[in-house]
Design goal:
mainly alpha, 19 helices, 347 residues, globular
Length: 347
């Protein structure tokens, strides 16, 4: 047989960008299911509208760049960005909020830098931060957990159906369920009541759960399960997520005084509140905007964990995953410069 000559690289894999992105999308399902069970259909309507807007914006940007539309839509990168932003937004977000966020994520954060593989910042987090800074009222209007709606809401408050949920998002109809029955998240309450004991907060505010708040602890557990699935499939390594979670836990333990809200809460509350697990397993693991080497990923993840705690404890925003990720995206090139492996034969 003739010798077959194949140029480098010689490492081959069945994983393509499209298949990796699809696995990431599938891995979000346990967390999405927990959010849907806990808050109703609002997260699903967010995701559906985000996907529609993301694919339309992606197609438009690719067409303007005179690139093959089908090829770029099939890589599923816009799909994953849409899912992550849809999860991060408050349930039942208005369509114009979703469209604005997707515009900044797809057009500004991704295609203005050259498209997939060239963006220095995580697109979904860019869209989220723009919305949080520009529309703080809309972005902090979280629906009450359905468990509390059932227990406390007796004056016309009902669980919206899937069709009604789309109506809320499109603002074709108005329901008192969402617009009139919203609650602060546990992290919001810690920021607003820094002179009380956490045990008193739990007795006063029913949205506190056993660890990180009703719905939030189950959602974080769901994203943890999805992240471990991706780790098992070797989509990424453990270095970034584990270093982030360990650093966040250590800082929370160091500053925790045993029960006052002024200390920011226990390590378990930080791990299972807000977007902690979503950030650890689905956002900082973005291969484009994170550090490259394993050593660099440990530094990158540790920096994110430290920033999350610092901003939660002393900053103006109760949940800080997006800000922490974007700040470390700035630092990723510098981290790569000092942690890149030595070339063979060089000291």
């Amino acid at each position: 047989m003739p010798l077959v000559q194949i140029t480098s690289p010689h490492a081959h894999t069945s994983q393509s960008t499209s298949s990796v992105m699809m696995l990431v999308a599938i891995a979000t399902l346990p967390g999405i299911a927990a959010l849907t069970i806990g808050f109703g259909w609002g997260t699903l309507t967010n995701i559906v509208l985000s996907i529609i807007f993301a694919l339309a914006l992606e197609a438009g940007a690719v067409r303007l760049r005179k690139q093959p539309i089908g090829f770029y839509l099939r890589d599923n990168s816009a799909l994953v960005t849409a899912i992550l932003l849809g999860i991060a937004l408050p349930p039942y977000a208005s369509w114009w909020i979703i469209l604005t966020g997707m515009f900044f994520a797809i057009i500004i954060a991704k295609h203005l830098y050259g498209g997939l593989g060239y963006n220095p910042f995580n697109p979904a987090m860019v869209g989220y931060v723009v919305l949080l800074i520009s529309f703080p009222v809309e972005m902090t209007r979280w629906a009450a957990p359905l468990e509390l709606v059932s227990e406390l809401g007796t004056s016309g408050v009902s669980k919206p159906t899937l069709i009604e949920s789309f109506g809320i998002a499109l603002r074709l109809i108005e329901l008192p369920t969402i617009d009139g029955f919203t609650m602060a998240t546990p992290l919001d309450l810690l920021r607003q009541n820094d002179a009380l004991m956490i045990s008193d907060l739990k007795q006063t505010y029913p949205q506190f759960g056993a660890q990180g708040g009703l719905v939030w602890e189950w959602a974080n557990l769901g994203f943890l399960i999805g992240g471990l699935f991706l780790l098992y499939r070797k989509i990424y390594t453990w270095h970034g997520p584990v270093s982030m979670l360990v650093t966040l836990s250590l800082l929370a333990a160091i500053f925790y005084d045993g029960g006052s809200s002024n200390s920011g809460g226990s390590p378990m509350l930080h791990l299972f509140s807000g977007a902690t697990m979503l950030g650890a397993w689905f956002i900082l693991t973005d291969p484009v905007s994170s550090a490259v080497s394993n050593k660099g990923r440990i530094i990158f993840g540790s920096g994110i964990g430290a920033l999350i705690f610092i901003i939660r404890q002393w900053g103006n925003y109760p949940d800080s995953v997006a800000f922490a990720v974007l700040l470390m995206n700035f630092a990723a090139p510098l981290i790569d410069h000092y942690t890149q492996p030595k070339t063979y034969g060089h000291s």
